[in-house]
Specification:
The longest helix has about 45 residues, at about 215-255. The chain has eleven helices and four strands. It has about 325 residues and is mainly alpha-helical. Helix 6 (about 155-170) packs across helix 8 (about 215-255).
Length: about 325
């Protein structure tokens, strides 16, 4: 895959971020309308002469301001708290310069060669091989390396991996991916809440002898269905972004170090043992250079639509063509 250039990629990723920011409220409103239509159909007893569409539109007008405000608050909290969330989810902690001058020298030399501000460096205490970049601005940009990848790669291989992660930062696709993760997380949270309430609803309705118990269950089912639809489509967008960013960062590493074979060699070693025990969340897992969980989805073979990472064999094949 030919690298398209720093400025072009930054513009593309910034544009994609803006498009995502615009599409997400549209998706929320669309799903709110779908929820309203289904709810009106399920609860309409014929007493209201207005059409289903009129009732649904009125319902959307009443709900939309509250829903969009709630989503905006959730997004802002998750967006600015992502650094702490990711650190907690991965068990990463700062790597001191005096602890490993080799890593600091590699990062500093690469940053100086590209005119970049040096990011923070974190280490994950795990003997498996993996790494990821995170952050939304110069103050929070971070490169995190597992203890295993530091100890088991030679200098050229480790330099290539670090260059890969610096390319994520340089191309601004770290910010883009975090935006997509936050959006998907909102739908995931709604789906989980609706599912948990649905499991408890029958017991609660029986214990309270509530005549409207059946109606409540219908509403919960509709909420669950709409949230699941939102989660599905937003996940597809997230997966596509995640796969594309790995190819681009591989190319960026090759451009930065002029040693594509070093990254290919590093990826071979990483593929043998990428599992990081601390990582249990799929949204965080997709930040890594290779998926750190050995859990394969039954859907991953459908044209790769549900894969967070491209096959590592294909990435190596592309690097060998440089």
């Amino acid at each position: 895959m030919q690298y398209v250039g720093l400025h072009t990629q930054q513009v593309r990723n910034n544009t994609r971020s803006v498009v995502l920011l615009c599409l997400f409220p549209c998706l929320v409103i669309l799903l709110t309308f779908l929820f309203s239509v289904l709810l009106v159909f399920a609860t309409n007893d014929g007493s209201n002469n207005a059409s289903v569409w009129e009732q649904s539109l009125l319902f959307v007008k009443q709900l939309a301001p509250f829903i969009l405000t709630g989503v905006a608050i959730w997004f802002l909290i998750a967006y600015f708290a992502n650094t702490a969330i990711i650190r907690k989810a991965t068990g990463a902690h700062p790597l001191e310069r005096k602890e490993n001058k080799r890593v600091y020298n590699l990062v500093e030399n690469l940053c100086m060669s590209q005119g970049m501000k040096m990011p923070r460096i974190n280490v994950i205490e795990d003997h498996s091989l993996n790494a990821f970049a995170s952050g939304i601005n110069d103050r929070t940009f971070t490169v995190s390396l597992s203890r295993g990848i530091i100890n088991k790669l030679d200098d050229e291989e480790l330099e290539a991996v670090i260059a890969h992660e610096l390319s994520h930062i340089r191309n601004r696709d770290v910010r883009l991916l975090i935006v997509s993760i936050v959006f998907v997380g909102i739908f995931a949270m709604l789906t989980e809440i609706a599912f948990r309430i649905l499991l408890r609803a029958p017991r609660q309705s029986r214990s309270s002898n509530n005549k409207n118990g059946g109606g409540i269950i219908v509403i919960i089912l509709i909420t669950l269905a709409v949230a699941a639809i939102g989660y599905f489509f937003s996940s597809l967008m997230r997966f596509a972004i995640s796969r594309n960013r790995e190819y681009l960062a591989d190319a960026g590493s090759a451009e930065m170090t002029r040693k594509p074979q070093a990254l290919a060699s590093a990826l071979r070693k990483i593929s043998r043992d990428p599992a990081i025990e601390a990582v249990t969340r799929d949204d965080v897992a997709q930040l890594f250079i290779e998926h750190p969980r050995k859990v394969k989805s039954s859907f991953s073979g459908i044209s790769g639509l549900f894969a967070t990472h491209p096959p590592i064999e294909k990435r190596i094949k592309v690097l060998e063509q440089f």
